[in-house]
Amino acid sequence: MKQFKLEIISPNEIVFEKEVDLVIFPGSEGDIGILKDHMPFLTSLRVGIVYIYVEKKIIETFLVTGGIVEVSQNRCSLLTEEVVNTNSVSSTNKTGEPSNKDEVNLKSLRDKALEKLYYS
Fold this sequence. Notes:
Elements: E1 4-9, E2 14-20, E3 22-27, E4 30-34, E5 41-45, E6 48-54, E7 57-64, E8 67-72, E9 75-79, E10 83-85, H1 101-117
């Protein structure tokens, strides 16, 4: 399958940078699938999961609290303030407390997501 370069960038680091076949973003108007040779565009994201595929299999998933996606010349860049790799999060330990930094970040992002989705 044809591939393109995907970058996921947070203020602190480049979280993901690799050639991929397909990525699905949680667009503000609905999910967006990007393949090689996609037309150039710029859009915003809502809170949700980013799915990354290589050889018809999901290789990574990330929880984002929004951001901006730019697609141009077989390069796709996601700029987001908060992102957690959901593959690196395991279950809680015996005390019920998160056992690593990603789990704490995921809980924090879930709380923020619920705040953004709550309408009073």
